[in-house]
Amino acid sequence: MSEDTEYKKLPVEERCVHKLWKARVDGYEEAAKIFRDLDDEKSPEWSKFAGLIKKMIVDSNALAQEKGLEAALIFVENSGLAGRTVGDVMTGIVQKCIAAPKTKTKELAVQVTLMYVEIEKHEAVVEELVKGMDHKNPKIVAACVAAATLALHEFGHKVIGVKPVIKKLATLMSDRDKAVRDEGKLLAVEIFRWIGAAMKPQIATLPQVTLKELEDEFDKLKGERVEPSRYLKSQQEKQAMIAETAAVEDTFNDEDGGAGMEEIDPMDLLDPVDILSKMPKDFYDKLEEKKWTLRKESLEVLEKLLTDNPKLEAGEYGTLVSALKKVITKDSNVVLVAMAVKCMALLAKGLAKRFSNYSTACVPALLEKFKEKKPNVVTALREAMDAIYPSTTLEAQQECIVEALANKNPSVKSETALFLARAFCRTQPTSLNKKLIKLLITSLIKTLNESDPTVRDSSAEALGTLMKLMSEKTVAPLLTEVDPLKMAKIKECHDKAEIKIKLAAPKKDAARPASAPNAKPAAVASKSKAGSGEPKPVSRPATTGARKVIKKPAGAAGGNGGAATVTSSKGTGKAMATEREMSPEEVLAKADELLPADILSGLVDSNWKNRLSAVEQLLGQIATFEAKQPGISQILVRTISGRKPGLKEMNFQVLKVKLDIIRSVAEDYPLTSITVDQVVNEITEKLADAKNGAVAADVLTAMAEATKLDHVVGRVLSFAFDQKSPKVQSEAFNWVNKAITEFGFQIQPKILIEDVRKGVQSTNPTVRGAAISLVGTMAMYMGNALMMFFDGEKPALKSQIQSEFDKKIGEKPPRPVRGVQRSLGGGDGQTDPDNECDDAADDEPMNLNDLLPRIDISPQITENLLKEMSDKDWKVRNEGLTKLQIIIADAKLIKPSIGELAPALAQRLVDSNAKIAQTALSICEQLATAMGSSCRGLVRILFPGFLHALGDNKSFVRAAALNCINSFGEKGGYKEFFENEMIPDALKSGSPALKSELWAWLADKLPGLPPKSISKEELSSMVPHLYAHICDRNADVRRNANEAILGIMIHLSFETMVRALDKQKPASKKDIMAALEKARPNLPVKPLPKGKLQAPIPDEAKKTVRGGGAVGGSAIAQKGGAAKAVVGDSNKSAPASSRKKDEDLDLSPLLAVNSLKNQRLIDEQKMRVLKWQFTTPREEFTELLREQMTAANVNKALMANMLHDDFRYHLKVIEQLTEDLPQNSKALISNLDLILKWLTLRFYDTNPSVLIKSLDYLAQAFQMLIDLEYILAENEGSSFVPHLLLKIGDPKDAVRNGVRRVLRQVLLVYPFTKVFSYVMEGLKSKNARQRTECLDELTYLIEEYGLSICQPSQQVAFKEIARHISDRDNSVRNAALNCIAQAYFLGGEKIYKLIGQLNEKDLSMLDERIKRAKKTKKPAPAPAEIASKPTSGPPQVARQDSIEIEDGEVGSNNGSDELPPPNEEGFKKVAKRSKCWKQRNL
């Protein structure tokens, strides 16, 4: 019997692999117990069993196998290493367990399988189960199918990918084994539950009988709601939070009435096919044949290819699309046109998003072809437009849509409007910005008023659908001009419209953290709904004359007659009033009613003094009129200007007061462009008046602020150049110059350009100087783009303009001080909070270059030119490109409508002639400059060609491609480059040169792009290629791929990239992980969210830690009530929310001065609390630290930040402690052990920023301790130094250097013999770099303090050091040799005796090292001298470097466990003892 149980003495790991099955059973059971007790998934205990799990589950003994599966289940559920075992374990489960004879074994095998899915290894699980479905044993096949069905049922199709499984259905359901067929049927039904009809094409090949059975089962599932019953570990916490608001979620999700399965795109279940390689070689030749039947044969072949292969692989389809487009637009045979349109629709469906490269060229042609009346063609065109739309957006196609709506053919207008209606049904509201909506509505309103009833009905349908999509509140304000009858039709279409997509859920308010400040009352919160959009008050320049500011109520411009109405004004971003122009008789009549008779008679008096008295009297009464009175401003202004002498007044005093009256009216009353137009010419003329020119300028400024700046500027400059007076012209330019600096650049540049060019060409030097000065001001806002309009000027004039440019370029434009506050209120002071929010969202920075006048070059892009560009003779192609260069150069700035040029250029980018390709690239760069930001629309067509050129074997082509890409990025942004997987496709199939150049470009550009500006899905699809190229054979590819890691990591995060490693081969994982770790320290630290700079302060925990009673008992009791006072105060305030607010605003010092540190030392030495020793920090250590900090009265806010999980709060703590360090040194000393303990926890964090900042703070703190001549207590040193030494082997140089620096400082405040012992312990590490650094530290310690520092003895120490001479790591060997060589110089030949026996190889290496070192080392003194030197070892005077507690001493202090606190005298005594050591070491 004793022999049978002998195995129980063996370790558990050995029992698990014992040859006796009973021993293995016992080992598995014991392992399961260990797994249950481990509460840390990262515990090193797990690693002992990670390699044994695969053996447990394939045990040859049935009972042992069952116990092994039980242990494996617990391991997978709780261990952090479980993910590494999924491949081997799942292979074993499929082969040996899933179809085992014992029922419990099968059940456990399925549970382990599902647990692997739960820990997010679902892809590997599905892969193994699919492999099992091909097994020869039908029982294994049936079991694998059943397991897959169960996993899908519990986790859903978003976790268990159905694509690999669904391909097996046809094979499974035609299997000869009935069990397999039955399980296959259940799997098919389960798949249908989740994805619906999308799976039907996959089972279409099954026999009709089987299909009928399945259809009957499918019918039973209709309307059934499916939800996962089990979630991944990462989803479980989130799901728990969602469950709390389940009712709300269900209400929202049920709005569409659909409670059944979630439909997915059937295309996602298909594999893409490359049809380009399957097309006949004579396809394009046949398509050019004159005989229509041959052209038809060619299209039939293409149609069959596209029908048989619905999903297409990415490729270069530009030539095919161009050929189809040519048939659609040029062919006269409607049958062929219909076939070509159908092929294009199939092509668009097959390529999906990838068709976007060609959609810009195809959509205009298809819309134009709607003029065809044949029903089969029109139907095909509709289907093609609907197929293309998912690959593009309405914003990208807005120009051709607007153009089609303005077409002369009613059919084109009608079908375009119907296409818009269908497109609106499949568009998310968020993708339609305000500018686009206004543009489309404006065009549709025009077609709504067409004479053709079909066009009107189609337009009404489009507008009604848009109203249904965007809400009536958004669209109705833009339909004010529509008559009631047509509006009723739009409302009818609105009611009938059906939105066919599920609209994105509105954003809900996230749950506030516990520490978030209380929400403001709703009334206050709604005061400024646009957030930071409201500008701060700004100072404005004073205008002449005093005026009374009147705050007018809303609707000041309401009424009849000349009443002003509010219309939108884009120029200044505010509402601009309009009104009816009154007749002179009507103005006279209303003036007689409004103004006293004496004023009216005085205005026309021949005596200037009477006129002056009248206008002064009127100026005094200006503020008293009713602002709501209709046409008040027009009556007053026209009365002043219309009654002779009006503004032709000869007396300067009277004229000044008249101008002041007009200015006051403009500032205090609603003013319209009608009123402005009545007087602006006369006021402009007064700019040349020597005495009243400044007053006239102020009047123009006030009118511009009341209406629109660009309107007033246009009228002023137009009148000035109609005059021959140079004075008027120069002063007009001066006023415009000043107005731009005050208002900002709110003028359309094309209004100014022509007039400014006239001004700079003037023969009058004053006018010319004023115009050039205005050009300089414009250059501040518009940049160098403005200079191109003056390229044709004479050299002398051009140099003057250039010198003015040089003064202003780079200068920051002044902040606008006019038009700011009024523009917020809109003309009448009323704002709609919702519209205000929309405006804030839509007000994007305006690119002023886009406003410059541009030339449409599309008429010059003739068919002959395109033929030349595609000619077989390279010389002809080159001539065509040269002509194109001249066209673009002459135009300078061009419109984005360039016809068929983009596809033609795309073909030349991949030209076999390198010079042609280079010329095409330079033309593309020229296009980007000439087109401005609109060039982004060409990226989808041209970027694949740029990438092809980037991989060319000629350097000049690569350089041209890089310049071209950068030009497009600078002008149009980089967002479009990261769409449609263009970059991943290039990385997948490109040459080494392309990969190298592309990764270098990405490494340069990605870090500087805003995080949310590019698609994360696109970047994620690049990651597999990145990992493959990190291990590429080509050195340049490897280097540049490594450099690109940081840019991608900034956008995706380190954790996401680590998760993507799971699919890599084990051999490459190590190198990739090392590259990721190397890039990680350079990640920018994300700032804490605004309002979350303080971590939530948790309620005081009552959880006790093992042996921690002394902290909660005697320590707190002896504090004298400090902690109780805090608790008591907080309990006094009744409302919990106010108490929480008081805690959040804890204004106490960060660290308090107290005497509790001695008690903590006693508790630790008497084993009342845990010793601060661990390999990885566990929860109980954190709780212990929390209790000790609470007892020490550490600031609650600081403590909450310290113990938060987010590293950004830790950075905040270090920043606060660093700021607090100089003025609070005593508090730091009182709590030094707590701070050091908290910092040791940070040593185990993975964030390098926290680690480096921690070491910087430690350096400052220890320097302060050195200056104060403080000596570390024993618990302070023992709880800190061992953990510090763990980081001395860190892979980052900054960390290692920081650790060395801190360790040198520790030697001045802690016994170096103890430091030596801790460093010796560090030699046991498995990390070679740590062993190397520890040996280097030992070398330093021996050199500085002599041989007597060696602990526990010289012989033991040197034997351990000598053992590393034979280490397999070269750096460790060198460090060990250096250390012993250093000892040899101090101790001589006796070192050989101390190190003991060495093998011949190690001894020869040591001898060689000592010989070499002697050449650069001074002769060593004799051993006797070394022994006699007092500085060779620690001083004989006992150094009280820590507080030693003897059993007899404890309790001698009046029965208390607490030692007396250190006082000033104690510090001085310690200082005297340590002074000599400090001098020696420094």
The total count of strands amounts to: 2
Average pLDDT taken over every residue: 79
Class of secondary structure makeup: mainly alpha
Number of helices: 75
- Biggest sheet record: 2 strands, antiparallel
Q: Strands of the biggest beta sheet: in what spatial order? A: 1-2
Instruction: Kindly report how far apart the N and C termini lie.
Output: 69 Å
Strand residue content = under 5%
- Label the overall shape: globular
Helix-residue proportion: 55-70%
Oligomer: single chain
- Gyration radius, rounded: 42 Å
Query: Low-confidence runs (pLDDT<50, min 5 residues)?
Result: 247-261, 507-576, 820-848, 1100-1144, 1420-1482
Q: How would you describe what is shown here?
A:
The longest helix has 20 residues. The chain has a two-stranded antiparallel sheet with strand order 1-2. The chain is globular. It is mostly helical and 1482 residues long. It is built from 75 helices and 2 strands. Helix 5 packs parallel to helix 7, helix 8 runs antiparallel to helix 9 and helix 22 packs parallel to helix 24. Strand 1 and strand 2 form a beta hairpin. Helices cover 61% and strands 1% of the residues.
Give a summary of the structure in a few sentences.
The protein has 1482 residues and is mostly helical. The protein is built from 75 helices and 2 strands.
